[in-house]
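REQUEST FORM: STRUCTURE PREDICTION
Request ID: SP-0412
Submitted by: Lab K.M.
Chain count: 1
Length (residues): 150
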Amino acid sequence: MRLSCLKACLPILALTLACSDSTSPTHLVSGTYVLETVNGQGIPAIFSAGQADTSFMLSATLSLDGAGYGLRSEHWRYVFPPNQVQEGTFTMPVEYRIDGDNITVGSFQPCPANALCEGNKFGKFTSTTLTLSYATNSTSPIFLYRLAPN
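STATUS: Completed
RESULT:
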């Protein structure tokens, strides 16, 4: 009786373990993602524009590991009067959390007092893309990242 129950349960257990391992979301999102568009505009793209100044996203990458951590790197250009230009690269370690096909990228620690902290980006992922924006701002740009080939 025990042997027949074991024979029946082993294939089910093996199939369950195989399915849960191969569909784990962290395996789907781990890798380096390259920014492809901002609000549907190819890179370089206008990130924000005011009456007298414009910010451009020249390039960006988001590298995510399988353990919930990553590195965000953005190369930008800021143009402001009178014909001034600043350019730089912003690099920051990040964390990410997954819930179904939703992803949150940023920091899950409280912002220190008197600090200027950027909000987390929220979005969706597929096997090859991440779409992110700031949920707290309804006019936030939408960033589309594509998984870079290995």
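NOTES: The chain has one domain: 25-147.
Reviewed by: T.R.
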